[in-house]
Each structure stands twice: as C-alpha cells, then as structure tokens.
Amino acid sequence: MAFPPPKIQDPRTEHTHTAILLHGRGSDGPEFAEDFLSSITSQQKSLTESLPNWRWVFPSSRTRHSTVFKEEMCTWFDASSLDDIQKDQELQIEGLRESVHYILNTLEAEIKLLDGRSDRVFLGGISQGMAISLWALLCAPGRITAPLGGLLGFCGWLPFAHQVEHLVRRPGAQLDSIHRKRLVSEFFRDTIADSTSRPERDAYDLSVLNTPAFLSHGLDDPHVSITLGRQAARVLQEIDIQVEVQEFTGADADGHWIKEPEGFDHILRFIERHCEQ
C-alpha cells in the first residue's frame, strides 16, 4: 500500500527553508498540521507567521495493523508496548523499513527543491513520528552528505535504544566520535535492511550526523515516559550530536503535546539560532 500524499503548507513569501514533521500513531499529516500550525508563541504568532519563508511538509503514514489496538490504523510501525519498548521488537522492523525509506526519499526531494541546501531543511516529529525522524537521521549517511538544519523531536522515543547503548558502551570499546557514529548508523541500517539490500560498508559520509537536535518532552506525559525521551537524548549524545532538551509539565493532551506557548518559543529560538549559523 502506498503512502498518502503529504499535507503541505506553502511559504507566504520566497521559499528559503523547509520543515518535515511527522505525526504520531493514530493521527495523520493533515490533523497534525492543523494542531501544530494553529499553536502560538508568547508573541501570539503561529510558526507560519514567525517564519513566512518556510514550507511545511506533513507526511502521513500508511494504514497498517496495530497489535495493541487490534485494528487497522494510521501508524508508522507496529509496536506491542510502550511500557516495555523491548517487547516483540521484531514487529517494528517492517514498518520502520518502509517508513524510513519513505521519509528519506521525502527528505532528498525537499533538499533538491532548495538547490541541495540540506542545512535549510529541518526534520522532526511527535511521539511515533519522532521515532521515525530519529531513525531516518541515523540511517541517512550514504544518502544525505551534509548536516540538516536541525532535528525537532517531541514526546517521543528511539526504538532499539537499549541495543545501541549496549553497543557503544560495551567493555573494552574505546571508540572515537567518528567510529561511534559509524557503528550506530550501521546498526540502524543493518536492522532494517532485508536480505537483498544489505548496505555497503564503504566509507560513506557521516556529516549528516552533525545535525543539531532539539528534544522536548512532558514530565507528566502518560503515553510516552520521560525516561524514554531522556534515553533518546543520551543515545544522540553518545555519538556527539549536539542535543538541546526541554522538559515541562501541563501541556494539552494530558501532557502528550508541546507546551504552549513556551514550547513553541523554544522551537522558534532553536530554529532561528541554527539558521543564523
């Protein structure tokens, strides 16, 4: 089954930057776009008003069976539990493979629209969408040859994070930054490769893994524990990705959303700071 077309919010003026943002499980691109773009900063402005040169791309996952809910639903990959993210991890791999491939294709297309300026494209998502955006970034070496403008993650986690932490911290492993980046990227690429498409072990460019990240998570999030968000941040820090973390309480959706307006202030400041660089 093909992925639905993305929801696109065109820039108000000349196009200079793009954000690709992924929805959570049970939502879709148009719904996430409506909620995200209608939220405001403390200046009483939406992000489209604050960033009029930006194109906003909200992809939708395809429909697949959910083991938890026992029905077909819009979800990037299947997962049997968020209380124990290591449970039945093999269920996640097919969806991770399909969704990461789709998002990397989308990312390449948006970079091409900006004449190859990957530093003007930001990638991110909420909840399961954050999980896919992290996986796409970590699988991007070999396809994307320069850093993105930034990664934006909200209320999410990193599937297979436990295995990665064990990989980079195993006894006797004295690895420099480049070797840690390569080791982690190869782990993610190998995990979703099928038997006919194993990635080559050539000296592919790792520059995309210098992309800075902003991760935001509610301390009172009842759906994705703050401990999972912190674990995702640790994994990125293990490979020397610059990570800015915002933790908060009292957001809408029982805490499983971005705190308004403070969270959107943080997003805007992160974007503006890294656009200046």
Please outline what is shown here:
By secondary structure, this protein is α/β, with parallel strands linked by helices. The protein has helices at residues 29-38, 47-50, 90-113, 128-139, 161-169, 177-192, 226-238, 262-276, and strands at 7-9, 17-22, 54-58, 63-66, 71-74, 121-126, 150-154, 213-218, 243-248.
Q: What can you tell me about this protein's structure?
A:
It is a single chain. The chain has helices at residues 29-38, 47-50, 90-113, 128-139, 161-169, 177-192, 226-238, 262-276; strands spanning 7-9, 17-22, 54-58, 63-66, 71-74, 121-126, 150-154, 213-218, 243-248. It is an alpha/beta fold. It has one domain (7-276): Alpha/Beta hydrolase fold, catalytic domain (Rossmann fold, 3-Layer(aba) Sandwich). The strands form two sheets. It has a seven-stranded mixed sheet with strand order 1-3-2-6-7-8-9, with helices on both faces. The protein has a two-stranded antiparallel ribbon with strand order 4-5. Helix 4 links the parallel strand 6 (121-126) and strand 7. The N and C termini lie far apart (40 Å).
